[in-house]
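Changelog-adjacent note: as of this version, every example in the card shows the full chain rather than a window. The one below runs 193 residues end to end.
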Amino acid sequence: MEQKNKAVLWQGTPSHYSNLDGYLFWSLSLIAAVVFLNITDLSSAFPKITLPVTIPDGSPSTLSRYLFATSTLSMYLFVKLLILIVPLWKLFSLYITTRNTNYQLTHERLITSTGVLHRIHNELELYRIKDYQIDEPFFQRFFSLGTLVLETSDKSHPRLSLSAIKDPKGIRNVIRERVEILRIQKGVREIDH
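Full-length structure tokens:
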């Protein structure tokens, strides 16, 4: 019996097509940043200020000029890198967040796992599901994707979304069948207040 409860009926992850708008926006931002950095001269934004420094023999210090030029150059490179790093970081975070989200449907539970460094695992008892909703945004429909939204009586997750999954209607039907079977087996009835 315990082995049957742990058998996986369905397993999936969100599709990266769900982030198509984010990927497009941040890719265009990255291209715009590269073009901007190539056609503008940011070095003029960092004026060179000379500080009068003399060394003990009375001559101006060439070392101080070198250090100042280096700090101006460093600030210039820092700003250039910052302009490039922001869109790169956003693209990477969209990808890695989607890549590290997993859904698993067993005979009695729906398990969601999210997070990169800090993983969160949530288990929803299937008999707690009260209602189903399928959301199929325009662009996701081209790829047979949709979001299955589950209304539950679970205190920690009253509304659970399985985002950008393939065949959301088929998954909903599998979940609905298991919910009905489990409610009969456990003698559970849903009562709304």
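Structural remarks: The chain has two domains: 2-15+102-186, 21-97.
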